[in-house]
Amino acid sequence: MKKPLYIMRHGRLRRKENTIVFEFSDEKEENIQRKIIPIESIDSIFVFGEIDINSKALNFLAKNDISLHVFDYYGHYSGTFFPREGSISGYIIVRQVEFYLDPNLRIEIAKEIINSAGHNILKNLKYYQSRSDDLEFQDEIEFIISDIKSSLDKVRNCEKIEEILGIEGRINKIYLDAWNFIIKSDEEVFKFEKRERRPPTNPINALISFGNSLLYSVVLDEIYKTQLNPAVSFLHEPATKRFSLSLDLSEIFKPLLVDRLIFSLINHRQIKAEHFNEDLNYTYLNDKGRKIFIGEFDKKLETTIKHPKLKRSVSYRTLIKLECYKLIKHIMGEEKYEGFKIWW
C-alpha cells in the first residue's frame, strides 16, 4: 500500500533505478546513511528538513505521479512540486469556474461547506461534553454549543460570501473558547487565549498551524488526483500564491483530523512542553515534537470507518478524496453536493 514519505532530516534525495534514495549523515556527521524506498510504496513526499534534489529525481517523481511538499524551518507550508496534470478535464474546469462566477451557485456550495464544518465542530464539543462528569464543564460547553447553533442558523439567510465568512469567523472564535475546557494539562504553556497565526505565540497556536499545514497539503494531494482545479474555490476567495479550494475542503476536515488530534496528544501527554523550542518561547515544535505529531497524524489519516453509503470501510484520507468527487458530481449536475459530516 502506498504511504506518504516524511523527511525530517537534512540530506539528499536522488533516484536509483526504480527507487528513491535518501542520503543523510549520522548524528556525529561522520558517516553517510542511506534509506532506500521503492517508488511504488510512495504516495507523496513531505519535506521538513533541508534537502538537495536534482532534476533526474524530480522527473522520476513526476513520471510516477508523486507530489513533493516543502515546509520551512518552522513547519509552515512553503510550496509543492506537482507532476504534470494527468487527470485534467477542460470541461470540468469550465464548469468549476462557472459555479464560482455565478453568485447563487457559489454561495450554495459555500453554505454547505460552512454547515458541514459547523456540524463537525459541534460533534467534537458534544463528544467531550459526554465524556465529562464535571457539571460546570458540561454547562459551559452547552452554552458554546447553543451559540454555535445560533450562528449556523443564520447561514441560510446569507446572500453574500462575505456574510458567510463573517459567520465562519464567529463560529471559530466561539469554538476556540471551549479549548481550555477540553484540554487537560497541568503545564502552564498549554493555556490558550486566542488564535494567532504568523508567528504563533504559544504551543496551542503552534500545533494548530502545524496541523493545518499538514492537512492543507493532504487535501491538495487528493484534489490533484481528480479533475478539479485547486485554485478555483467557493468559500475562500481565489487568490495568487495559494490553492484556495484546499482551504475550502480543509475547513470541513479540521475538526476531525487536526483538532481531535491536538486534544488527544496533549491530554494523553504525548506532546508536552519539552517538545517545543524553548529558545523560541515554546512557539514552534522541535524535531522530536514534529515526529510525534506527524506519526499520529499519519495514523489518523489511515484510520478506517464503515461508510454508510458505500457499505465498506474507508480511511479518513479516502473521505477527503470522496469529498472532491462529490463536488465534481455537483458541478456536473449529477448529484447535489452534501459536505462530509461526522456520523459517528
From TrEMBL:
Gene Ontology terms: biological process: defense response to virus; maintenance of CRISPR repeat elements
Domain of life: Bacteria
Keyword Membrane: no
Residues involved in Mn(2+) binding: 168, 236, 251
Cofactor(s) the protein requires to work: Mg(2+); Mn(2+)
InterPro entries registered for this protein in UniProt: CRISPR-assoc_Cas1 (IPR002729), CRISPR-assoc_Cas1_C (IPR042206), CRISPR-assoc_Cas1_HMARI/TNEAP (IPR019858), CRISPR-assoc_Cas1_N (IPR042211)
E.C. number: 3.1.-.-
The entry's keywords: Antiviral defense, DNA-binding, Endonuclease, Hydrolase, Magnesium, Manganese, Metal-binding, Nuclease
Recorded GO MF terms: DNA binding; DNA endonuclease activity; hydrolase activity; metal ion binding
Function: CRISPR (clustered regularly interspaced short palindromic repeat), is an adaptive immune system that provides protection against mobile genetic elements (viruses, transposable elements and conjugative plasmids). CRISPR clusters contain spacers, sequences complementary to antecedent mobile elements, and target invading nucleic acids. CRISPR clusters are transcribed and processed into CRISPR RNA (crRNA). Acts as a dsDNA endonuclease. Involved in the integration of spacer DNA into the CRISPR cassette.
Similarity-based family: Belongs to the CRISPR-associated endonuclease Cas1 family.
Subunit-structure text: Homodimer, forms a heterotetramer with a Cas2 homodimer.
HAMAP family xref list: Cas1 (MF_01470)
Record protein name field: CRISPR-associated endonuclease Cas1
Species the sequence originates in: Candidatus Kryptonium thompsonii
Gene: cas1
